[in-house]
Write a structure and sequence with these properties.
Elements (H helix, E strand, L loop, with lengths): L3 H12 L10 H10 L5 H13 L5 H6 L2 H7 L6 H17 L8 H9 L6 H10 L10 H9 L9 H11 L6 H19 L13 H10 L2
The chain binds a DNA duplex (13 and 12 nucleotides) through helix 2, helix 3, helix 6, helix 8 and helix 9.
DNA sequence: ACCCAGGGTCATA
DNA sequence: TATGACCATGGG
Protein backbone atom coordinates (compact mmCIF):
# COMPACT_ATOMS: atom_id res chain seq x y z
CA UNK A 1 0.00 0.00 0.00
CA UNK A 2 1.23 3.48 -0.86
CA UNK A 3 1.65 5.91 1.99
CA UNK A 4 0.17 9.42 1.83
CA UNK A 5 3.70 10.77 1.55
CA UNK A 6 4.41 8.57 -1.47
CA UNK A 7 1.24 9.86 -3.08
CA UNK A 8 2.52 13.37 -2.40
CA UNK A 9 5.84 12.58 -4.07
CA UNK A 10 4.12 11.24 -7.15
CA UNK A 11 1.90 14.27 -7.43
CA UNK A 12 4.83 16.64 -6.96
CA UNK A 13 6.86 14.80 -9.59
CA UNK A 14 3.93 15.01 -11.99
CA UNK A 15 2.81 18.60 -11.46
CA UNK A 16 5.64 20.43 -9.67
CA UNK A 17 5.21 23.28 -7.17
CA UNK A 18 1.74 24.82 -7.13
CA UNK A 19 2.55 28.27 -5.69
CA UNK A 20 -0.50 28.37 -3.44
CA UNK A 21 -2.44 30.30 -2.17
CA UNK A 22 -3.01 32.44 -5.31
CA UNK A 23 -3.17 35.85 -3.59
CA UNK A 24 -1.05 38.94 -3.02
CA UNK A 25 -1.53 39.30 0.74
CA UNK A 26 -2.56 37.28 3.79
CA UNK A 27 -5.78 39.26 3.97
CA UNK A 28 -6.57 38.38 0.36
CA UNK A 29 -5.97 34.71 1.20
CA UNK A 30 -8.57 34.87 3.95
CA UNK A 31 -11.11 36.72 1.82
CA UNK A 32 -10.63 34.14 -0.93
CA UNK A 33 -11.08 31.30 1.55
CA UNK A 34 -14.58 32.57 2.36
CA UNK A 35 -15.52 33.39 -1.21
CA UNK A 36 -14.51 29.99 -2.59
CA UNK A 37 -16.89 28.05 -0.32
CA UNK A 38 -18.60 25.55 -2.63
CA UNK A 39 -17.59 27.75 -5.55
CA UNK A 40 -15.11 27.45 -8.42
CA UNK A 41 -11.99 29.56 -8.14
CA UNK A 42 -12.57 31.24 -11.52
CA UNK A 43 -15.68 32.86 -10.05
CA UNK A 44 -13.73 33.99 -6.99
CA UNK A 45 -11.14 35.71 -9.20
CA UNK A 46 -13.87 37.85 -10.73
CA UNK A 47 -15.10 38.98 -7.33
CA UNK A 48 -11.53 39.71 -6.18
CA UNK A 49 -11.08 41.90 -9.26
CA UNK A 50 -14.31 43.73 -8.38
CA UNK A 51 -13.09 44.35 -4.84
CA UNK A 52 -9.68 45.59 -6.02
CA UNK A 53 -11.28 47.83 -8.62
CA UNK A 54 -13.35 49.49 -5.88
CA UNK A 55 -10.29 49.55 -3.58
CA UNK A 56 -12.42 47.49 -1.23
CA UNK A 57 -10.03 44.60 -0.61
CA UNK A 58 -9.39 46.12 2.78
CA UNK A 59 -10.64 45.17 6.24
CA UNK A 60 -11.77 48.62 7.37
CA UNK A 61 -13.40 49.30 4.04
CA UNK A 62 -15.39 46.08 4.14
CA UNK A 63 -16.55 46.76 7.69
CA UNK A 64 -17.66 50.26 6.72
CA UNK A 65 -19.39 49.26 3.49
CA UNK A 66 -23.11 48.66 3.20
CA UNK A 67 -23.84 44.94 3.08
CA UNK A 68 -25.92 45.35 -0.08
CA UNK A 69 -23.09 47.17 -1.82
CA UNK A 70 -20.58 44.51 -0.78
CA UNK A 71 -22.96 41.81 -2.03
CA UNK A 72 -23.14 43.49 -5.44
CA UNK A 73 -19.35 43.24 -5.77
CA UNK A 74 -19.52 39.57 -4.81
CA UNK A 75 -22.15 38.66 -7.37
CA UNK A 76 -19.91 36.34 -9.47
CA UNK A 77 -19.24 33.96 -6.57
CA UNK A 78 -22.85 33.05 -5.96
CA UNK A 79 -24.39 33.03 -2.45
CA UNK A 80 -23.44 36.70 -2.53
CA UNK A 81 -25.80 37.79 0.27
CA UNK A 82 -24.56 35.03 2.56
CA UNK A 83 -20.93 35.67 1.71
CA UNK A 84 -21.22 39.42 2.17
CA UNK A 85 -22.43 38.75 5.71
CA UNK A 86 -19.69 36.19 6.33
CA UNK A 87 -17.00 38.50 5.02
CA UNK A 88 -18.20 41.25 7.33
CA UNK A 89 -18.27 38.85 10.27
CA UNK A 90 -14.69 37.85 9.55
CA UNK A 91 -13.51 41.45 9.11
CA UNK A 92 -15.05 42.45 12.43
CA UNK A 93 -13.04 39.76 14.13
CA UNK A 94 -9.86 40.63 12.25
CA UNK A 95 -10.25 44.31 13.01
CA UNK A 96 -10.87 43.77 16.71
CA UNK A 97 -8.15 41.18 17.30
CA UNK A 98 -4.70 42.51 18.07
CA UNK A 99 -1.93 40.40 16.58
CA UNK A 100 -3.84 37.14 16.10
CA UNK A 101 -0.61 35.62 14.81
CA UNK A 102 0.71 35.67 18.39
CA UNK A 103 -1.80 32.99 19.39
CA UNK A 104 -0.92 29.31 19.28
CA UNK A 105 -2.52 27.34 16.48
CA UNK A 106 -5.25 25.68 18.53
CA UNK A 107 -6.43 28.93 20.05
CA UNK A 108 -6.35 30.67 16.70
CA UNK A 109 -8.34 27.83 15.15
CA UNK A 110 -11.01 28.14 17.84
CA UNK A 111 -11.21 31.88 17.29
CA UNK A 112 -11.69 31.42 13.55
CA UNK A 113 -14.30 28.68 14.01
CA UNK A 114 -16.23 30.98 16.36
CA UNK A 115 -16.86 33.35 13.43
CA UNK A 116 -20.26 32.70 11.86
CA UNK A 117 -19.52 31.63 8.30
CA UNK A 118 -16.08 30.16 8.97
CA UNK A 119 -16.19 26.35 9.16
CA UNK A 120 -13.35 23.84 9.46
CA UNK A 121 -12.07 24.02 5.89
CA UNK A 122 -12.17 27.80 5.68
CA UNK A 123 -10.42 28.09 9.05
CA UNK A 124 -7.72 25.64 7.99
CA UNK A 125 -7.18 27.45 4.67
CA UNK A 126 -6.53 30.57 6.71
CA UNK A 127 -4.30 28.80 9.23
CA UNK A 128 -2.12 27.16 6.59
CA UNK A 129 -1.99 29.76 3.83
CA UNK A 130 -2.32 33.04 5.77
CA UNK A 131 -0.84 32.17 9.19
CA UNK A 132 1.61 29.51 7.96
CA UNK A 133 0.60 26.93 10.55
CA UNK A 134 1.14 23.17 9.97
CA UNK A 135 -2.53 22.32 9.47
CA UNK A 136 -3.63 19.88 6.76
CA UNK A 137 -6.59 21.21 4.78
CA UNK A 138 -9.34 18.73 3.87
CA UNK A 139 -11.72 19.53 1.04
CA UNK A 140 -14.20 17.63 -1.11
CA UNK A 141 -11.40 16.71 -3.56
CA UNK A 142 -9.21 15.29 -0.81
CA UNK A 143 -12.04 13.19 0.56
CA UNK A 144 -13.07 11.93 -2.86
CA UNK A 145 -9.56 11.20 -4.13
CA UNK A 146 -8.41 9.24 -1.11
CA UNK A 147 -11.68 7.36 -0.88
CA UNK A 148 -11.38 6.31 -4.52
CA UNK A 149 -7.76 5.33 -4.05
CA UNK A 150 -8.93 3.11 -1.21
CA UNK A 151 -6.46 4.71 1.17
CA UNK A 152 -9.09 5.65 3.73
CA UNK A 153 -11.83 3.47 5.11
CA UNK A 154 -15.41 4.25 6.04
CA UNK A 155 -16.82 7.78 6.04
CA UNK A 156 -14.58 9.82 8.33
CA UNK A 157 -15.71 13.34 9.19
CA UNK A 158 -13.56 16.41 8.61
CA UNK A 159 -11.67 16.26 11.88
CA UNK A 160 -10.96 12.54 11.65
CA UNK A 161 -9.59 12.94 8.14
CA UNK A 162 -7.40 15.89 9.11
CA UNK A 163 -5.99 13.97 12.08
CA UNK A 164 -5.32 10.99 9.83
CA UNK A 165 -3.26 13.04 7.37
CA UNK A 166 -1.39 14.90 10.08
CA UNK A 167 -0.49 11.65 11.80
CA UNK A 168 0.65 10.00 8.58
CA UNK A 169 2.80 13.04 7.80
CA UNK A 170 4.05 13.76 11.32
CA UNK A 171 7.67 12.97 10.45
CA UNK A 172 8.10 15.19 7.40
CA UNK A 173 10.68 17.97 7.68
CA UNK A 174 8.90 21.18 6.73
CA UNK A 175 5.22 20.55 7.38
CA UNK A 176 4.02 24.01 6.38
CA UNK A 177 5.79 23.65 3.03
CA UNK A 178 4.59 20.09 2.39
CA UNK A 179 1.00 20.67 3.56
CA UNK A 180 0.89 23.78 1.37
CA UNK A 181 2.04 21.94 -1.76
CA UNK A 182 0.09 18.78 -1.00
CA UNK A 183 -3.30 20.46 -0.84
CA UNK A 184 -2.62 22.44 -4.01
CA UNK A 185 -1.50 19.26 -5.76
CA UNK A 186 -4.60 17.35 -4.69
CA UNK A 187 -6.80 20.08 -6.14
CA UNK A 188 -4.78 20.27 -9.35
CA UNK A 189 -4.88 16.51 -9.80
CA UNK A 190 -8.51 16.03 -8.81
CA UNK A 191 -9.78 18.76 -11.12
CA UNK A 192 -8.31 16.72 -13.95
CA UNK A 193 -8.71 13.10 -12.87
CA UNK A 194 -11.10 12.84 -9.94
CA UNK A 195 -14.20 14.89 -10.67
CA UNK A 196 -17.71 13.90 -9.67
CA UNK A 197 -18.67 13.38 -13.30
CA UNK A 198 -15.66 11.34 -14.38
CA UNK A 199 -15.46 8.83 -11.56
CA UNK A 200 -12.76 6.53 -12.88
CA UNK A 201 -9.06 7.16 -12.48
CA UNK A 202 -7.53 5.01 -15.24
CA UNK A 203 -4.68 6.94 -16.81
CA UNK A 204 -3.40 9.33 -14.16
CA UNK A 205 -0.06 9.36 -12.33
CA UNK A 206 -1.66 7.60 -9.35
CA UNK A 207 -2.96 4.69 -11.42
CA UNK A 208 -0.59 2.16 -9.91
CA UNK A 209 -1.71 3.14 -6.44
CA UNK A 210 -5.24 2.34 -7.46
CA UNK A 211 -4.35 -0.88 -9.26
CA UNK A 212 -2.27 -2.10 -6.34
CA UNK A 213 -5.18 -1.57 -4.03
CA UNK A 214 -7.68 -3.27 -6.31
CA UNK A 215 -5.40 -6.29 -6.55
CA UNK A 216 -4.85 -6.31 -2.83
CA UNK A 217 -8.58 -6.73 -2.42
CA UNK A 218 -8.23 -10.02 -4.30
C1' DA B 1 -32.00 21.33 -19.24
C1' DC B 2 -28.95 19.37 -15.86
C1' DC B 3 -24.89 18.89 -12.85
C1' DC B 4 -21.07 20.63 -10.54
C1' DA B 5 -17.80 23.83 -8.14
C1' DG B 6 -11.31 24.63 -3.50
C1' DG B 7 -18.72 24.83 2.34
C1' DG B 8 -21.44 26.38 6.15
C1' DT B 9 -25.60 27.39 8.84
C1' DC B 10 -30.00 26.56 10.53
C1' DA B 11 -34.35 24.12 11.57
C1' DT B 12 -36.18 19.85 12.57
C1' DA B 13 -36.63 14.98 14.69
C1' DT C 1 -26.25 13.33 15.88
C1' DA C 2 -28.02 13.25 11.67
C1' DT C 3 -30.42 14.47 7.81
C1' DG C 4 -32.49 18.22 4.56
C1' DA C 5 -33.24 22.92 2.87
C1' DC C 6 -31.06 26.81 1.63
C1' DC C 7 -27.81 29.98 -0.36
C1' DA C 8 -26.94 31.46 -6.35
C1' DT C 9 -23.40 32.49 -10.22
C1' DG C 10 -20.74 30.62 -14.16
C1' DG C 11 -18.95 26.72 -16.91
C1' DG C 12 -19.32 22.08 -18.95
Amino acid sequence: MQTPYQVYQRLFKQYGPQHWWPADTAFEVMVGAILTQNTSWTNVEKAIVNLKKEKALNCNKIVAMQEKQLASLLKPVGYFNVKARRLKNFCHWYQNTRQPEKNDTEKLRKQLLAINGVGPETADDMLLYAFHRPVFVIDAYTHRLFTRLGLIEGEPDYEELRQWFEKKLQRVDDKVKVFNEYHGLIVQHAKQHCTARKPLCETCCLKRVCVFHCHSLG
